[in-house]
Structures are given as structure tokens and as C-alpha cells.
Predict the 3D structure of the following.
Amino acid sequence: MLDKIKSLGADTAVYGVSTVIGRFLNFLLVPFYTNVLSTSDYGVVATVYSYIAFMNIIYMYGMQSAYLKYASTREIGDDKEIFSTPFTSVLITSLFFSSLIFFNAESLAPIIEVPVNFAPTLMLSALMLMLDSLAVIPFASLQLQRKVKTFAAIKITNIAVNVAANVILLLRFHMGVIGIFISGVIASSVTLVLLLPTIAKKFRFHFHRGLYKALLRFGLPYIPAGLAAMMVQVIDRPILLALTNESTVGIYQANYRLGIFMMLIVSMFDYAWRPFFLTHATDPNAKQLYSRILTYFTLFSAFVVLLVSIYIDDLVKFRVLHRFIINPAYWSGLGIVPIVLLGYLFNGIYVNLIAGIYIEKKTSHLPYITGIGAAINVGVNLFLIPKYGMFGAAWATFFAYAAMAVAIYFVSHHYYPVKYEIGRLLKIGIALGGVIAADVFRRNLLPDVHAQIFKASAVVAFIVILLALRFLNADELKAIGSGWSMKFKQG
């Protein structure tokens, strides 16, 4: 089992290199935008990208997930048919959807509460959506073939081109918000060009109808499920905009993006996790393996949440070229960062638990699970934002992800029962919750002179609490002891 977990960890690390580098380059745009754009202009960008996230679900209608499933099992059709059928379908539908948006941009702008003078951003978004959709199946193909270097190189190139174009268009040509979306189109175009060799190798002018029906049966539930899941991620921005103003949305968006640290963990794990659990689904100890992986994932993620939550105020105040990482005008939203991080932790647990539904082809339940999260998100947003503003929106996201994790646990357990280590997971929660609560107490009652000492002590306290609760089992203690013994001998 340990070897398999190490294999998953290695794959996660490899995908993580591209994800971390790519996300880091993209993250650089946050301080860049906060120092170049007004809070209201950044609010417009956040709003449009929220709708782009929704449209990505419509454009793909589950074809990526369906491709991964049938390309891994090869139940129907050969390799080229399994690639060409979903790719052709996405090509036709994306052309149709993008044409509708492109030629009706001025009519759509007021509907989504975007000023009419920003209608060109919708036209550019339509092009970006089409280009990005055409890249998804080729990327999934690279993922299944474990062509990690090619996958990573293209992903990093996409972000690097996007960042470079943003800097040039916004600083050199002062194009503002429009420059951001032109940069997106340029980066998406370069990505698709780099994927052409993969497309040419895999594509064949043949459409397998039987396979297509199977793909649709597996994939179509991802439309309502994906829309509901995306609502959890982005619906808070339009609601926050309707109940507050563009400036509040801009501040919220900038600080929400600081949750990138946990989002990175979840993203890089997800890249490796889906091929991993499909590959090992028939192993005799698969369920025990999946249980242990959830425990270790939660432990690692909790430690990341703790570190970022405690040191986030130090990070944003770090100066680069005489500028703060995040402009002081946005610091009023820093308090939402720990809440967002905890929400992403539960999102990671949800990603872990999806294995059973995926293996047993029970994707028809996903819309109900994510629908619960979306309903809770909208309800809590409407209830809390009028009183607590952006903090209410952050809590809505947290409760939504937590509800989704609980819901998918019960549904997955019904079809694919796994004895997860609930007791150990609760111990992680107790340790993390206790230390974060102490940090909140410290911030409110203790002077800043004690801050750095307390922060270092808090990290140690997290580990001590876990040890006091006897989190580690005998095998893990033995493995740790053997590891230290080996290092001592080598030293």
C-alpha cells in the first residue's frame, strides 16, 4: 500500500510542478491588477470571469469526464474513435455557442450587469471559451498517456503567455480591462497550436454513434452537477455585486484568490487522483488504499491551511519593487482567507470521495449532491451578505463545500462502501480548529509584539495536539522511526 501511495504522491508532485508554476505566474496577476485597475474595474473582470466559469461547463457537457472514463476502460471503440467522437462533438457545439455570444454581446451585457461599454469583453470571452474547450480533450489524452512533461510545458506556456500579454497590453498600451481578455485569447490560441500534434495523432474523421451515446449517458449529468459546483465557486460574486458594489467585489475577489494555496493542492491532487483510482479500482485492497489516502490528504491540507491562515498578513505586506504584494486598499478583506482555505479543504475531501461514484458509473447522483451545495451557497449568501458583507459570502462558500463533502460521502458509501478513518479525520479537525481559534483570539486580544512568537508556537502546537490525540498508528510510528534511524546512520 505504501508504494502505491508514494506513486500517487509522485504523480501529484509532477503535476504539481506545472500547476504550481502556472498558478504562481497567474497569481502574479493579482497584485498586478490591484495596482493597475480600480476596484470597480476589477469587479467587472471578476463578474465576467464568473460567467465564463459557468459557460465552461456548458461548453464541455461532461465530455472530458466521459472521455477519461471510456479511454481508461476502452469498453467501446478504439483509441482514435474514443478521442475523435467527443472532440468532434465539442468542436461543433462550441462553434455554435460562441457564435451566439459573439453576435449578441451588447444585448447580453446588461443582463449580467456588465456596463455596455465592456460588451467587447463578452465577444473576446466567446473566442476564449471555444479555444479552451477544444483543448480539454487533448489535455485529457496527455494525462492518460502520462505525458507529464508535455502536459506541464503547455500548461506553463499558456500562463506565461497570458501574464506577458497582460503586462504588455496593460502597462505599455494602457488597454485596461479589454487588455485582460485579449491576453486570454492570445494565450488560449497558443495553447491550441501547441496541442495540434496531439490532435493530429489521435483524430480520425469517424464518429462512433454507439460510443457517443455512452459518453452522453456518463457525461450529461455533469452539466447540472458542474453548474451547481461552479455556482458554489462563483455565484457569490454576482450576489455580492447585487447587494453591495463593484469595489466590494473587487476586494473580495483579490482576497479570495489568496486561497490559491489550497486550490493548488486540490488541483494537483485531482490531476493524479482520477487516473490513479481508475487504475487501481480492481485491486483487492483498493478500498483500504483510498481510505488511507483521504487521511493523508486531509492531514497535509490541514497543515497548509494552518500555515497560510497564520502568516497571510505577513505575506501580503511583503514588498516587491517598492510595492506591497497586495495593495493596502484590499487589506480589509484579509479576514476571509482562512474561511476560503477551509472551504477548499472540504472541496479536496469531495474530490477524494468522488472515486466511488465514478467507478460505479453513478454520475446521475452528482447533480443532487452539487445541487445541495449550490442551494446552501445561494441561501447563505442572501442571508449573510446584507449583514456581514464579503465575510458572509466567504462563509457561504465554506458551508456549501462542507455540505457537498458530507452528501457525497453518504451516496458514495451506498454504492461503493469504504471504511474511511473518521476518527483520525476528526482528530485533524480538532487540532486545526483549536489552533486557528487560538490565533483568532490572539489577533483580537494580544499586542502585535507577540505575533511572531505565537505563530511559530501555533505550528508546533498543531503537531503536539495530534501526537497527544494519538493520531499516528503503530505502523506509521515504526516507519517514521525507521526513517530517522536511516538518516542518523547516513549522517
Remarks:
- The longest helix spans residues 286-316.
- Strands lie at 319-320, 323-324.
- The two ends are 29 Å apart (CA to CA).
- The chain has a mean pLDDT of 85.
